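Hey, I'm writing a tutorial for new members on how sequence and structure tokens pair up, and I'd like a real worked example in the thread rather than a made-up one. If someone can provide the structure for the chain below, I'll link this post from the tutorial.
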Amino acid sequence: MDRRPGLSVRLKLTLSYAGFLMVAGVLSLVAVGVYMLREGWLQTNESGAVRETPGILFVRGFAPTAALVMVFLLVFGLLGGWILAGRMLAPLDRITRATRTAAAGSLSHRICLPGREDEFRELADAFDTMLAQLEAHVEEQRRFAANASHELRTPLAISKTLIDVARADPHHDTDALVDRLHTVNTRAIDLTEALLVLSRAGQRSFTREPVDLSLVAEEATETLLPLAEKHGVTLETHGDIAPTTGSPALLLQLVTNLVQNAVVHNLPGDGSVWVHTEVGPQTVALTVENTGERLGPRLVATLTEPFRRGTDRIHTDQAGVGLGLAIAKTITQAHDGTLTLTPRPAGGLRVRVELPATSASADG
């Protein structure tokens, strides 16, 4: 937006400071004149002319001095106001330079304004916090874009290799090639759909509706029951009615991802998954726990990052696309909730999702 040039804030403060000094000087002179009138220093004769009195002589001698004082006040006000305004606005100059540096693409710069707490320091600290969050978000987006490109390139490269091999060998087994291409294509489709879900959840482009989280959990566990039986994992679902608001489809995707992750990353042939819902004063909670290998806190803290996989504990037939927990976290944040991952002492993972409760659940 184009704006017409105007006076700087420093010049405005300078003129204001000088103006206040001039007004104070004029009021002082007026007060002296009123005092002289009340004390009879200015006396008139019968014709109305002012007689030569000591007061008149004082005024004649005082007027040039008063004029010099007013000139001094004007110069002092301009110079002093300019210096004081510059010192007061110095932090704002640093904030402006930092803003321009950030606009140029450098988000690592920080203001780090010294001094005691005041409005400018509070603004600088808030700006530094915003820059840190923005830098982290941009870095996460760059990392996500790089990982997504790599993940999408892998199935395409495999497909190209299979096709090249088939073209070079006309007697190649066509059925095996078709089966392999079908598997690779399915993986690419799953990855693309996961990226679309992740993007839609992050943009919050959905309509909120009343949802019972306990019913969503039951639907997800029923859907994944064959997968659990295939891996020899026992599924248990219990808990309270947990009314909240949100997208039924996205919340079902959230619970499905968590339960599927708990089933796949489990003890082979003798594992368990527990799905529990509960109601708090202001929130409803969904907890998904599973048995499995012991996990370190450092690894658990990174599991919600996109394309992050614990490769040492994933079955090769259910490797997924590395977006299950990332999608769960994004859906949770889109519903103004929190997702917490905690390693279980006996092995496995405990995932807790807390969402805002509706008025009905808040009232018990």
